[in-house]
Amino acid sequence: MKLFHNREGFHVFKDEKTYQVKNHLLDRDLHNISKDDAKLKEFLKNGYIAVNQAENGEYLLEARDRLQGGGPILGKAFYFITKAVGHIVGVPEEITEVAAQSAETMGNVIPGP
Q1: Rounded-to-integer distance, Cα 90 and Cα 92, Å
Q2: Fewest Cβ atoms nearer than 10 Å: which of 7, 44, 78, 97?
């Protein structure tokens, strides 16, 4: 499957056929971005377009951001913040330890398309 954009809008190329994506099937952000090629190119530097097919066969497009994780430094910061809050509020240390380790291991997570 490939997705492309021209003056007529977005098109999905699948199984040797081209399908035009109707404008009302674009999410609001993507609909506004798609009117300007420069804005679309800028968006694609840090985002991507998710393509889904409805039960009736039509294609739906959704703009999504690629979120950068906080890395090991932010993970350590959340570890100590979580422990401090746990001591102040009185949450058992085992619970704060699990929550803090979860935040730390997520580090540099970048979701894929």
Answers
A1: 6
A2: 7
